[in-house]
Structures are given as structure tokens and as C-alpha cells.
Amino acid sequence: MNRNRVAWIAPQSTPGQNGGNELPLLLATKISPPRRGRGILPRPRLELYADQLLERRLAVLEAPPGFGKTTLATIWAERLSALGQTVAWLSLDAEDDSAQRLLYYICAAINKVLPEAGRRCLDLGAELGFFSAEALSSLLIDDLARQPTPLTLFLDDYHCIDDEVLVEALRVFVQRAPEHVHLVLVGRKDVPEPIVEHLYADDRLEIDSTMLRFELEETRDLFRKGGVQPEFGGDVCSIQQASDGWIAALRAYLLTPAQGAGRHLPRSISNLFDDILAQLPEAMARCLCAVGVLDKFSAGLLQELLGEAQADELLLLMRRRQLFLSVLDEHDTWFSLHPLFREHLRAACLRQDEVAARKLMLQAARWFAQRQLWFDAIRLGMDSGDVAQLREWIQDCATTLIEQGDFSTLVVLEKRWQMQASDSPLPLKVTRAWAMGLALEHGPAMRLTCELEAEIEQHTPSEESSAIYWEVQAIKAMLWALDDRYALAAPLARECVESGYCTQWAANVLLNVICGAHMRACEWDQLYALPPTQRRSQGNRGYFLHECYRQSLYGLAEMYQGRIVQGIAALDELQQQAANQSAADMRRPNPVLTALPKGLGAYGHYLRGDYAEAENLLQECLPYIKMGSFIECAAFAYTAQVRLLAQQGRFAQARRLLDDLESLALARDWPRLQARALLERVRLHLLERKPREAQVCSNLLQQLASLEWPDQWVDREYFALLARLWLALDEDCCEPGLLEQASALLERFKASGLWLYYLELGVVGGLLISRDQGAKAALPLLSAELDLLEQSGAISLLTDLPTQDTCALLARLCPSALQQRAANLLGIDATAQSEHCSQALLALTVKERQVVQLVAEGKSNKQIARDLNVTPETIKSHMKSIFAKLKVDNRAQAAVMLQQA
What residue stretches are annotated with the HTH luxR-type domain (predicted)? Predict the structure, then answer.
């Protein structure tokens, strides 16, 4: 910001005596817009508001420091000037401490761009102090009324001026200024009410910190512009969450070498926070530090902790001074501070008096517990360190936490506070088993269920012990399902449902297990016939957790059946439900749960070629995929990210991501996920022209395909065959029996309605049939494939063939009758491509065209030399010339160009 400190200097000669435009040098810097810094990221969604300034009497840019207010105002001023509008600018500071001085500077700023306006006020010189602010305003308004030129006046840093001075100087001016005068106020605090009270809502434009925050896509663009390329997406996503889109923090992060979520608060931001605290009264600064221990707060909570008078004063201060305060609900009752500001205040509070800070946390935790806001109570209880109180609360609320989808909280407690003590009651142990299972802690959860079964056997048979026994069996069914052992999970889930002992919670879980079993068996009718999840209004407090898994499975089933758009729509609706629930609960959606629809939705968008949306979703969900997602979600999310990286030529990062995926598969003991990772390795190696490495991965896939495993799914067999077909694209012909195996698997997919796999397998299989058996033999299959691709829009299944040049591959292997349809799907003008190839071939000599023709027939250099009665060295010379003229790298590409022409 422009913070030039200008002392008050009574003009020795009045501006009027020197033509009205000669001002003291330092004053001139106050009435010129600051230069826009280099590296400013364009933000069209905010810059377009400049067009609305000419329609409003008053615009207010109001936000805490570091939100880019002055930068945006400068851009608006430049945009208006470029449109031919008259723009005046004034930067204020603390020395502008009287209404007369403020109006004098306003007149000077206007006089700079409108020489006839403001002159009478400027001519007063040393007599300025004898006139009231209202009189000076009237003189300026009269001058402006005589000037028909539209004017936009920017007043930057109005927060430096006391409210009384600001009201005295601007109230009359804002009320009575002509309609062609527009005022833009830029500052950190609310505009005093007397200035704006007479304005209608449509006379005002207000831009606050909520609108100024960087969105995730803008943050990603900022990092790219700064030369920082995120590894996978988790880095930018975690920084976005930590900074909450605060521009100053994002730029500070750009200047720090550390990567990822483990970054510390940059020193420049810490100094800024210290400056803010230093400007507050000491008592208020101490109270504000105490608020830093709270993730969210209300007026009632502050009154409990600080006393009614201090709480009300502090809340009013935070509102008036824009101290990074966010409103969480539409009723204006719950608030939170910016995450970085809260972190700084918390550290300061612990440094001042750690014992008092821990007591404050426990007091706040008890306040939340009394209102059964268990998530907040448990979090603060953990920070306070009161283990006895924490155990008591856990016994009261463990089931509630699970029902709210907060299973990760219980898992953290399990590890941190050793909640598995032998004296824990049986229901609490059951709840812990649910939590560990949902968090994919399969081994510990299965051991705990075995302990529970042994403990139940020691009890006298009763209705209560039977109910607990069947709930434990439901947990085992869920564990086997999440562990991808549906051959074991599905029968047990049906047995549990038929027992009649299941709670509503367990019944919803079991229905989701059965839903997954139907999907893997391609029993679509039975899947859609399942009863819906019991809704929250019917007493199911865990509705969203169950519905998240159910709708994610439905969305996945739609995509498996080739209905990509319908699958994406179901997943988008689920994300909207999560947003609505989070708005009602005043909490961020559980990222572990929302990773399910986002990961699957990212793959759906990727299939349809919407790569930007896929990348956005992956940035948000990939860090959480491993924490609670089922196997397909992890497989599809990682596949989409790997292929996006390959598209961008970032093969090293793609390989590292596959290392991560394979480590997850081995840790979870998921052979099917390991097979997916190996398939993507085959594709990457082929793209990098490393056929030997691709063959090794394919051999490993064949071993996984023969592994006996109760996953009841075709993936491992399919991936092994697809890898062999991809490798065959670089061979002269397929190995015996390969195309027959592909045809048999295609028939199985067709019969079971597994159209997504049918499409992917059919594309490569059809091209190989065309090459080995002729275009006529491949025509029916490839024609049907193109029909399905057009219906589903899954164009990535065509572009993802493991080749550097998909168009050349299609031109070489796709029957000519279908090439135009394929080109249309890829958005290629086949006619223009053909004309380009024809023009390139015309540049060849007659002899060179003959050589290319023989190359297209598959002949070697020696054979061509023999046919043309020349030496092989001559053919090599011709080939170099051909490559240069056609701008190709090898013989195959030259042959493709001949076919396209």
C-alpha cells in the first residue's frame, strides 16, 4: 500500500496562483495511484466489478490487511482510465487528522484530473482552517456540478482516519455529490454508518474479504506464475486450507523454501499479526489471544470465558476493525478467525501462561459438552490434556461421533490416549471397532472384533448379548468389504440383516455392503431394488455417512455401465448435500467422506475430457483418499491424476504417484489396486518408449491375474489382458490366441453390462483386428465402439491409447470409413489434416515419394534399395531428407502421413 507520511505544509503560494496544478512534491505522490507490482495475477471475476462503479454512488473495498484491496482498486482505476473515464486518487494516512485537511487533499486529487474543479477550496491556502467541513464540501460539490465529466474518486486507506473526522469530511459530500460523481473507499474497517445511512442498497457496491480470498484455482495459478509446480495437488490444497485464500499468506508461502502442509507461519505474516496486536489496548489484546484457542465461538461462549462486558467489547472490536473475523452462519451467531491468525494467537496465549491457557481450553470444552457439541468438546478436551474428563466424555459421545462421520477423531483418541483400556465398557469397544474399520485400520479393527466375540461368549445368552454379537458380525462384514473380500463379506452381510438384531446404523452399513456386492456381480436390477438409506428426519443421525457411501457406489455403478454423465450428476448432488449439511452444522464437510464423490467424479470428468474440473477435484481430495475410501475410489482418482501428469509430460511425478499407489495397495493387501498401478506403469513405459520395462510390468500383471483372491471382480484378469494388447500395438502382429481372448472378454462385458471396460478393451482390440485381419473384420466392432463413445462422451478412452501420437495411430489402424467419426470425437479436422499431409508430400521428390510408398508397405531399407536398384546408403540419405521435409521422427510417422494424404 501507499504509506507516504506527509507532514502538513501550509502552501507558500496557493495552487491557484500557479495555475492550480503545482503541488508540493510529496503531496503529488498522495494523489497518484500506486504502481501495480510485477507478477500480479489477473483475477477477471473481481476486475469486472470496475464496470459497476459507474452505476453506483459508493463502492467499498473492506478487508483486513494483505487481501489485495489497493491492488484491486489500482486495477479498477486503470481499467476505467483505459475506457476514457476520469479517475482521481488519494492515499490517506494518520497525519490527515482533520476534516479540512482531508477535504483539501480531496480537492487536490480532483483538481489534478479536472483543473476547473476544487480550485476555490485550494485557493483558500492558509485560511482553510477558518471554514467548516460542510462549507468546503459545498464549494467542491458546486464545482463538480458545473463539470459534466463523470468522475470516479478513490480514497485508499480510509481506516487511518478517525471515524469522527471521516464523518465530518465525507457525510455531506456523499449525500449531495452530483450523480456523475462516484466514490470508492478502500480500507480495513467498516465505513461509519452516518456516511452511508441515506444510500439505498442499489447505490452501494461492497466487496469484502470473503470475495477477495483466492479460490483454489486462483491459488494454483498464482503458484504456477511464481514458478512453483505442485507435486500432486495435496501441497496446494493444504496451503489453500491453511491460508484460507489470504493473498499475503500465499505470497509469503511462495517465498519460503519448505513444501507441503508442514510449513511454518512465514515470518513476514507473523510480524504483521504482532503489529495488529500492538495497536490494540493491552486488555483487548490479551482477550483476543485467548480467543485463538477456539476453532469457532459465539457471543455466549466468549461471555462464559471473558465476562459479558469484555466479550461484547471484543466482538465489537473484531467486527469494526476487520480482525480476520468470519461469520459461520446466516444468523450471525457463530464466528471463527482466520486459521493463520488463530494459530498465531494460540501460540501467543500458550507463551504468556500455558497453565491458564489449558484451563481456558477445558472451560470452553465443558461449555461445548453441556450443549452436546461433542466434536468441539473432544477437540478442546484433547488440547487441554485432562484425560479423566476426556474418557468420561468419550463414553457419552462415541456413538454420536461415529454417527456424525467423525470416526477419525476416535481413531486419533485411540492412538493418543490409549482408549483400548481393558476396563472400557463393551458398547464403547464396539464403537471403537466401527471407527477403526471406517478409517481403514483393518488389522487392529479385526483383532478387536475377535476380542469382542470372545468376550461375548463369556456372557450369559440374552437379547442384549445377541444384539451385540450380530453388531460385531456386521462390523466384520464391513471390514471384509472395505478390504475387498466380497466373497466373504456379502454372505455374512445378508445373514446379519436376516437375523433381525441389527440396529438402524448397522443395517445401513450392511445395505451398503450388499450394494457393493451387487455392483461387483453386475447385478444391476438387484442393486437398484435395495431400500434407500434411512433419512436423518427419520431418526438416522448418521445419514450423510451412509448416504455418502451409497451414492458413491451408485455413481460408480453408473460409470461402469457407460452412463458417465449420470454418474457425475449423482456424485455432484452428493457434494452439494455435503455443502448443505456443513452450512447447517457450521463446520467444513468431512474431507475424508467428501473424497469419495470427488475422487470418483474426477475420473468421470477426466473420461469426458474435462481435464480442468478433474484436476480441481483431485487437488481437493487426493490427500484424503487413503484415509477412508474404498478401493475403486483410490484406483480411479490415482489413475486420473497419473494420466493428467502424463499429458503434461511430467512422467517422473507420475511414477512417484504410482509408487505411492502401489505402497497403498501393499499396505492394505489389495491385489486389485496393485494390478491397477502396474497397468498404469505399462502405459507410462510405452509412452516413454520403454518396451522392455513395460513387458516386465505386464508379466507381473499376469501373475496377479492368476492369484486366488476373494475379490469377486474381473479387474485383475482384465488389466493383464489389456496390458498385453497395448504391447501388441508396437508389434507386427498379435501373439496367437490374444485377439480370441479379447473377443471372449468383450462378450462377457457386453452380457454383464460392463460398458466402461467394454469401451476401453474394444478400442484397442478393434484396432489390432484391423491391423491383423483387415479393416472389414474390424468394422463392426469399431463402429459399435464409436457409437458408444459418442453416447457416453468418454473420449479419453480413445486418447489414452499408449502412444505419443493418437491421431497417427488411428490413421494407420482405423478403417478409413470410420476415420472421420474418430476425428470428430477428438475434435480434429480430418480434411485439414489430410490437406496438410498432401502439401507436405508435394515437397518430396519423385524418388522420395517412391521410398515413402515402399516404407508404408513395410519394407526395410535393404529391400527398398533392391527394388529401386540403388545402394542402402542412398536410401538412408533419402530417409533423412524425407524426415526433414515431413517433420517426422521415424518411418512409421512418414507412412501414416502417406495414408492420411
Answer: 837-901
Q: Which of 172-181, 420-429, 730-739, 842-851 has the lowest mean pLDDT?
A: 420-429
596-605: per-residue pLDDT in tens? 999 999 999 9
What's the CATH code of the domain at 31? 3.40.50.300
Confidence of residue 539 (pLDDT cuts 50, 70, 90): very low
- For residue 616, pLDDT over 90 is answered with no
Are 445 and 402 within 8 A, CB to CB? no
Q: Shortest CA distance to 140 belongs to which of 103, 165, 175?
A: 103
Are residues 220 and 202 part of one domain? no
List C-alpha distances in Å: 577 to 80, 331, 570, 832, 859.
41, 21, 11, 47, 62
Cell triple for 215: 479460490
In the predicted structure, residue 120 carries a pLDDT above the cut 70: yes
Report yes or no on 464 lying in a domain: no
**Rounded distance between C-alpha atoms, residue 100 and residue 92, angstroms:** 13
Domain around 791: 749-828
Please tell me whether residue 489 adopts helix, strand or coil conformation: helix
Cβ-proximal residues to 44 (8 Å cutoff; 6+ apart), any chain: none
Residue 22 and residue 157 in one domain:
yes
Residue 41 shares a structural domain with residue 141:
yes
3-state secondary structure 695-754: HHHHHHHHHHHCCCCCCCCCHHHHHHHHHHHHHHCCCCCCCCCHHHHHHHHHHHHHHHCC
Which residue, among 441, 632, 440, has the nearest Cα to 553 in the 3D structure? Answer: 632
Q: Do residues 247 and 68 make contact, with C-beta atoms less than 8 angstroms apart?
A: yes
Question: Please, how many CA atoms are within 13 Å of residue 356, restricted to the half-sphere of its CB?
Answer: 14
- In a domain? residue 170: yes
The three three-digit cell numbers of residue 359, written as one number: 484451563
Give the whole-angstrom CA distance, residue 643 versus residue 658. Answer: 11
What span, in angstroms and rounded, lies between the C-alpha atoms of 52 and 206? 11
* Residue 899 confidence (pLDDT): 59
Q: Are residues 239 and 129 in the same domain?
A: no
In the DSSP assignment, the letter for residue 673 is H
Place of cell 505522490: 29
Q: Are 425 and 395 in contact (CB under 8 A)?
A: yes
Both 225 and 205 in one domain: the answer is no
According to the model, what pLDDT value does residue 414 have?
A: 58
367's CB contacts (< 8 A; 6+ apart) are: 301, 304, 305
In the numeric block, which cell numbers belong to residue 566? 449420470
